[in-house]
């Protein structure tokens, strides 16, 4: 029986993971992206243990680890002391760490692997329309020169981000809300005596800061205030800024991840707080699950398998983000005095680790037998 033809819309980490997982199962998907090439800005940083497990059968986990920086600590710091340290060494399995790897490097490694396996990415090709007539799908695609063509794939995977054309085409609306204020992000070089072996979170109410080590002295700073550079914790000083951007946090989710042979993965289906570095990773999980279900011939179960995971995540990270960013005296009391006491207990650390490292999502069934 012939394999179905598959069109992947979007060549970010999520779309490329879908392509990679489909290819190793014997499919030859087409991949288009309206961008002219891979990203140069790096919004996502963290690659969690679950994503590394998913990338292991294709041999990509080793490449990611070689290119990234392992972190095994999360430090929560108050205005005058270290409040809590979460340690990851006790995580089961070979990936007892979070990997810091800028998104442009993740995409480059995935794109290289996709090309090595005989698949090409059609950069500069934009999906302008998508419609169905029963099980027949028509994708209207504009090439870089303005020419328009039609494709009739058996399956379409929308990995085209928060402003997804595929999502609009199948009539799925985002439902949820956005935070009132912009957050701020800076990539730069840091001068500090603090350890750069982990994520440092600073409770400097009314401002919250997080500092991710990238490589050497390069870090990413995120704050719940857009204009935070003049209010940095005294322990750190940014000596050079490479990239700076405001961003708005939203928590949004579609009702269904699929409409017949058309599917949504990643930010096309759900967006949420970056707390815990879950966005890109959850999308990569979506892509790998969908590839497995396509190979199993059970795509009708995709929404039931993946939507509850995103719904639970949003219900978890939204209150956690608001709690950590809150300036209410009761929340400050809990963060600075109660959390350090209970957070240091071994059984509490064991409960925290799955949330910090995203290992509390359903384990991919195909990995139970080695891939």
Keywords:
FAD/NAD(P)-binding domain, 2 domains, six-stranded mixed beta sheet, alpha+beta, seven-stranded mixed beta sheet, D-Amino Acid Oxidase, Chain A, domain 2, 371 residues, 9 helices
Describe the 3D structure.
The longest helix is centred in the last third of the chain and has 24 residues, at 302-325. The strands form five sheets. A seven-stranded mixed β-sheet has the order 6-5-15-16-17-14-18, covered by helices on one side. Helix content is 31%, strand content 30%. The mean pLDDT is 89. With 371 residues, it is α+β, with helices and mostly antiparallel strands. A hairpin with a 2-residue loop joins strand 16 (207-215) and strand 17 (218-223). It is built from nine helices and 22 strands. The protein folds into two domains: 6-45 and 102-178 and 250-325, FAD/NAD(P)-binding domain (3-Layer(bba) Sandwich); 71-92 and 180-248 and 334-363, D-Amino Acid Oxidase, Chain A, domain 2. The protein is globular, with a radius of gyration of 21 Å.
Number of strands: 22
Number of helices: 9
Write the CATH architecture name of the largest domain.
3-Layer(bba) Sandwich
The proportion of strand residues reads 25-35%
Radius of gyration, taken over Cα atoms and rounded to an integer in Å: 21 Å
Strand order of the largest sheet: 6-5-15-16-17-14-18
CATH superfamily of the largest domain: FAD/NAD(P)-binding domain
In round numbers, the mean pLDDT is 89
- Level-1 CATH class name of the largest domain: Alpha Beta
CATH topology of the largest domain: FAD/NAD(P)-binding domain
Structural class: alpha+beta
Q: What would the principal axes of the Cα set say about the shape?
A: globular
């Amino acid at each position: 029986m012939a394999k179905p033809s598959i069109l992947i819309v979007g060549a970010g980490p999520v779309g490329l993971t879908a392509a990679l997982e489909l290819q190793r199962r014997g499919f030859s998907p087409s991949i288009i992206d309206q961008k002219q090439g891979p990203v140069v800005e790096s919004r996502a940083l963290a690659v969690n243990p679950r994503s590394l497990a998913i990338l292991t059968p294709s041999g990509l986990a080793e490449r990611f680890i070689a290119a990234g920086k392992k972190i095994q600590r999360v430090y929560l710091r108050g205005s005058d002391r270290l409040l809590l340290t979460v340690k990851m060494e006790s995580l089961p399995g070979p990936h007892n760490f979070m990997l810091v790897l800028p998104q442009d490097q993740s995409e480059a490694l995935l794109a290289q692997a996709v090309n090595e396996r005989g698949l090409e990415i059609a950069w500069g090709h934009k999906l302008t329309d998508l419609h169905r007539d029963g099980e027949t799908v028509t994708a209207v695609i504009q090439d870089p020169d303005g020419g328009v063509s039609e494709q009739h794939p058996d399956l379409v995977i929308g990995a085209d981000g928060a402003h997804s054309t595929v999502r609009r085409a199948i009539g799925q609306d985002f439902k949820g809300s956005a935070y009132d204020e912009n957050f701020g992000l800076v990539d730069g070089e840091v001068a500090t005596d603090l350890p750069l072996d982990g994520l440092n979170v600073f409770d400097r109410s009314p401002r919250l800061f997080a500092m991710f080590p990238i490589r050497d002295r390069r870090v990413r700073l995120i704050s719940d205030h857009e204009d935070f550079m003049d209010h940095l914790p005294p322990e750190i000083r940014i000596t050079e800024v490479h990239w700076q951007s405001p961003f708005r946090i939203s928590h949004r989710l579609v009702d269904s991840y699929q409409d017949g042979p058309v599917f949504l993965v990643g930010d096309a289906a759900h967006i949420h707080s970056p707390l815990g570095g879950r966005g890109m990773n959850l999308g990569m999980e979506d892509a790998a699950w969908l590839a497995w279900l396509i190979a199993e011939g059970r795509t009708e179960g995709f929404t039931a398998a993946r939507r509850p995971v995103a719904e639970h995540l949003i219900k978890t990270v939204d209150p956690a983000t608001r709690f950590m960013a809150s300036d209410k005296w009761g929340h400050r009391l809990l963060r600075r005095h109660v959390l350090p006491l209970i957070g240091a207990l071994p059984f509490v650390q064991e409960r925290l680790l799955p949330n910090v490292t995203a290992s509390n999502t359903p384990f991919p069934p195909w990995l139970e037998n080695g891939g």
